[in-house]
């Protein structure tokens, strides 16, 4: 069971911020724009309102730290507004170390996030972790920490949430992480447990309600997903109603809906491969030479497996339209654009952009695609980024992105957007570092002459990043994460500009769909640059990583 420090019990009566979602335009399924507003209590010292336009993104953490970022990097990245903390990585200690943090905003204070700029959410499990886990039980969820698997009960999770006081809390969900497909009995258990654990978190115990996001259960079954959504909308009676009073149904206490694609991606791939294996092989003697119905018919079995869009639509169809929709573990910008166009997703995670930085890829794409950005030479599609491990960048002394200008290259007449990241637009110091009052007096004239305006240094080049990657310098990944997050932010900014730039919603949706098609025609949707970079990353890790000296000695003996 959860054990909290004495201060944790005292914070149970604290006031939580209020989260509201304003849908400016949009329908049940299709592109939409809105605003996610977090209003903090008036007695908090920080700014009372955080306003995030949607579609937008959140970024995850590893043990509460954004990968490769220091606190200064987080504060300098203007595009980062929502940060998610996976609490399972702290469960090796009982009670978990973050629960000892005192204050009115312990989650922000412990990890050093700015409560006036950052919405910080708390989930038990890392939504990007799809590793096979021990099965959950009726009264616990299996979570992974550095000392193995821990069993977390709903009472434990509720205690952690009330102690840490996140801006948004994710309810526990019984997501099967074993190999698909899952039986009807297993899916029924998943739905019932997820609904019961949500009800436990919604029990009133604070002056203001928690902002709770629910993971949409149901796996790869559209009927199971609809059943879970209907369970959220059902009117409660008896003891169930008394437990969550004054809520009449569970959905009234839900602030938003979350879809974890990590498990869905692996399940859909497995089911599609099984469907293909079970499809009958056409008779070679009667195989037609043109595409006819006899060729399509053997593959009709594949249509029994629902698509990702169909699964999300099945979950959202019975639910209210005016609540935010969050999707984690998207794999590419193409998938982001399709989910906005076909489903109407509001928030995505930036995990794929961080993973790109891990393997040395600097993202380089823009939306909407300018007329000058046609397909590359030889009518090949453009890569979505640059594999900076590649030897061709060893002497490439240009900025990281072709689609964006560096800060020092910006002019008043330029139509090309500027990448604001610390790699493309590093800011030079505009004032001296003062060590004493004498320094202040001697440089007072410098402060009065108006020269303290922002000045940009030349950008870091691809050749420099190539050098850093091959020498295992950590700063390479820091610069790449900053750049990739800025490119992702620019993508979603472009989406919002198109959707909000037309008063007629139908016209905006039509123009957006046309721009998505053009993006798919220009940029490589197979993300082949990622596969190449991953192989190069493995080669460099083997050559420079742990055990290098032993391998070199063994190689010399063979010679």
From TrEMBL:
- Look up and give the organism this protein is from: Suillus discolor
* Annotated Gene3D superfamilies: Queuine tRNA-ribosyltransferase-like
Q: Which GO terms describe its biological process?
A: tRNA modification
Signal sequence residues: none
- The protein in question is named tRNA-guanine(15) transglycosylase-like protein
Describe the location of the tRNA-guanine(15) transglycosylase-like domain by residue ranges.
Answer: 32-235, 307-501
């Amino acid at each position: 069971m959860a054990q909290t420090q004495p201060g944790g019990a005292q914070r149970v009566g604290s006031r939580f911020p209020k989260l509201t979602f304003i849908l400016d335009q949009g329908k049940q399924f299709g592109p939409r724009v809105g605003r996610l507003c977090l209003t903090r209590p008036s007695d908090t010292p920080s700014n009372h309102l955080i306003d995030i336009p949607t579609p937008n993104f959140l970024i995850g953490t590893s043990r509460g730290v954004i990968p490769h970022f220091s606190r200064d990097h987080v504060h300098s990245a203007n595009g980062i507004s929502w940060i998610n903390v996976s609490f399972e990585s702290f469960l090796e200690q009982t009670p978990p170390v973050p629960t000892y943090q005192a204050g009115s905003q312990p989650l922000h204070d412990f990890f050093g996030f700015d409560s006036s700029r950052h919405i910080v959410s708390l989930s038990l499990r890392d939504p990007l972790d799809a590793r096979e886990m021990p099965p959950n039980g009726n009264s616990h969820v299996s979570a992974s920490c550095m000392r193995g698997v821990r069993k977390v009960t709903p009472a434990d999770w509720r205690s952690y949430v009330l102690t840490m006081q996140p801006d948004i809390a994710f309810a526990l969900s019984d997501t099967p992480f074993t190999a698909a497909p899952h039986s009807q009995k297993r899916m029924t258990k998943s739905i019932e447990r997820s609904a019961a654990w949500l009800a436990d978190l919604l029990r009133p115990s604070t002056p203001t309600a928690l902002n709770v996001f629910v993971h949409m259960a149901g796996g790869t079954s559209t009927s199971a997903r609809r059943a879970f959504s209907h369970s959220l909308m059902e009117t409660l009676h008896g003891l169930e109603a008394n437990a969550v009073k004054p809520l009449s149904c569970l959905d009234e206490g839900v602030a938003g809906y979350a879809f974890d694609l990590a498990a869905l991606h692996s399940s859909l791939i497995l089911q599609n491969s099984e469907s293909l294996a079970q499809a009958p092989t056409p008779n070679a003697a009667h195989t037609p030479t043109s595409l006819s119905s006899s060729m399509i018919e053997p593959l009709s079995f594949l249509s029994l497996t629902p698509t990702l869009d169909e699964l999300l639509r099945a979950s959202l169809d019975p639910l209210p339209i005016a609540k935010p929709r969050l999707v984690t573990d998207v794999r590419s910008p193409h998938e982001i654009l399709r989910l906005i166009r076909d489903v109407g997703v509001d928030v995505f995670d930036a995990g794929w952009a961080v993973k790109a930085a891990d393997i040395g890829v600097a993202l380089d794409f823009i939306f909407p695609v300018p007329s000058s950005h046609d397909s590359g030479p030889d009518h090949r599609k453009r890569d979505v980024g640059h594999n900076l491990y590649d030897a061709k960048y060893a002497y490439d002394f240009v900025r990281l992105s072709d689609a964006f200008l560096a800060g020092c290259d910006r002019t008043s007449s330029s139509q090309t957007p500027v990448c604001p990241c610390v790699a493309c637009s590093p800011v030079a110091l505009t004032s001296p570092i003062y060590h004493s009052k004498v320094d202040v007096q001697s440089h007072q004239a410098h402060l009065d002459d108006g020269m303290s305006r922002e000045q940009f240094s030349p950008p870091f080049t691809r050749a420099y990043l190539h050098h850093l990657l091959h020498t295992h310098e950590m700063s390479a990944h820091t610069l790449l994460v900053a750049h990739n997050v800025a490119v992702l932010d620019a993508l979603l900014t472009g989406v919002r500009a198109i959707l909000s730039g037309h008063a007629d919603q139908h016209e905006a949706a039509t123009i957006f769909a046309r721009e998505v098609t053009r993006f798919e025609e220009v940029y490589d949707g197979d993300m082949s640059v990622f596969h190449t970079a991953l192989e190069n990353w493995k080669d460099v890790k083997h050559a420079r990583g742990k055990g290098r000296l032993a391998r070199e000695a063994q190689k010399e003996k063979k010679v």
